Amino acid sequence: MHSKTLEIWVGFFMLLGVAAVAVLAFKVSGSAGTGGDVFRIEAKFENVGGLNEKAPVMVGGVRVGRVAEIRIDKEDYSAVVGMDIDSHYDNLPIDSGASILTAGLLGAQFVGLEPGADDIFLEQGDEIEITQSAIQLETLISQFMFSQGSDNKADSE
């Protein structure tokens, strides 16, 4: 009888441990939702690089929202990024800028917002006009190699 009680307790703690790991996984991945009301804003970019939906939107290193959708504008073929911003951050000036940045040298991409100085704040459906597209590492390397190749030609002449 003693071993059966022990087995039940071990099983109970195993289930508790699995549940704790599942909760931790949802918290870390951000799949548990934003935890409150959000408002949607948009920004157009020439190139979004490797930006994905659910990527963080940050201001000064603080997550203020998530990328909700990425689509193509059918009129000018630019990439439109829809961002859900937590309602706690409803005081972002309307002249704020948006950039696609990379966490670390080869890390994941996210949207960085740079607050402006206007007294009017972004609201549901507003579009950020000032944007900077993703910097492609391959493009930078090829430009560097091309510029070094032309410098070497000039040196040899």
Summarize the entry for a quick read:
With 157 residues, the protein is α/β, with parallel strands linked by helices. The protein has helices spanning 2-29, 137-156; strands at residues 38-45, 56-59, 62-72, 79-86, 97-102, 109-114, 127-128, 130-132.
What does this structure look like?
- With 157 residues, this protein is α/β, with parallel strands linked by helices.
- It has two helices and eight strands.
- It has two domains: 1-32; 38-143, no CATH class.
- Strands 7-1-4-3-2-6-5-8 form an eight-stranded mixed beta sheet, with no helix packed on it.
- The model has no long low-confidence stretch (mean pLDDT 86).
Which range best describes the helical content: under 10%, 10-25%, 25-40%, 40-55%, 55-70% or over 70%?
25-40%
Question: What characteristic shape results from the CA principal axes?
Answer: extended
Taking Cα atoms only, what radius of gyration do you get, to the nearest Å?
23 Å
**How many structural domains are formed by the residues?**
2
Order of the strands making up the biggest sheet: 7-1-4-3-2-6-5-8
Tell me the number of helical segments per DSSP (H or I, 4 or more residues long): 2
Low-confidence stretches: none
Write down the secondary-structure element order: HEEEEEEEEH
List keywords for this structure.
2 helices, single chain
